[in-house]
Amino acid sequence: MTVGPGKYDDETAAVMEAVNASGVILIVLGGDRGDGFEVHATPEVVLKLPEMLRDIADQVEKDGVG
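Given the sequence above, the corresponding structure tokens read:
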């Protein structure tokens, strides 16, 4: 994860505010500014991200999507 605003920083911030979340991960594929990955989250959520992303990857593989 990089530090500082990315290509889709404003959109990620808008989603986080709109749903009153403690964290948002936005993955954009083929967007108007190209592919991108953006995270806005509290420090506590950031610490949980590696485990959460591994669980998501495992589920994608299990479902046969990956």
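The CA atoms of residues 14 and 20 lie 10 Å apart. Try to locate this feature in the token string yourself.
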